[in-house]
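Board notes (copied after class):
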Amino acid sequence: MDSRIYQTIPHRPPFLFVDEIIEVTETQARARRFIDPQEAYFAGHYPGNPIMPGVLLCEAVFQTAAVYMTERLQREAAGESQTAQRTPVLARIQDARFKSLVKPGDTVDIEATYKEAIGQFHFMKGRILREGKMVMSVEFALAMVAEPPKAAQ
């Protein structure tokens, strides 16, 4: 598991759907995920012909976007003192399209691309590819939510 993920987003197994961050640029993040045949959800999601649930594919995109937004905010805040910590939280999902099935044993590439910001809302689009071919796409928005101050220890 890529330690960079643990440093940027709060998600942890079994609800972490990104294995490796490939690249974070000014406009996008790219990640990768191996779809482990031993994942518990396969036992009940189309038994005998298991497929990865579409909602979990979307979640992989949203987690990749959260890594992107966290790193983007860290770059923007460089040099500022006492910048409020913010957590990217999903605010909107629209236009999710599923074009192909993801099966146990597949490896997928995940992309999250920045579009624009309106206030604290950041609009993005994402997609998942398997062997260079699109599996799904989605448009969504993340809200940047201030974290409560940590108590002194």
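Comment from the instructor: The chain has a mean pLDDT of 91. Residues 2 and 20 are 5 Å apart (CA to CA).
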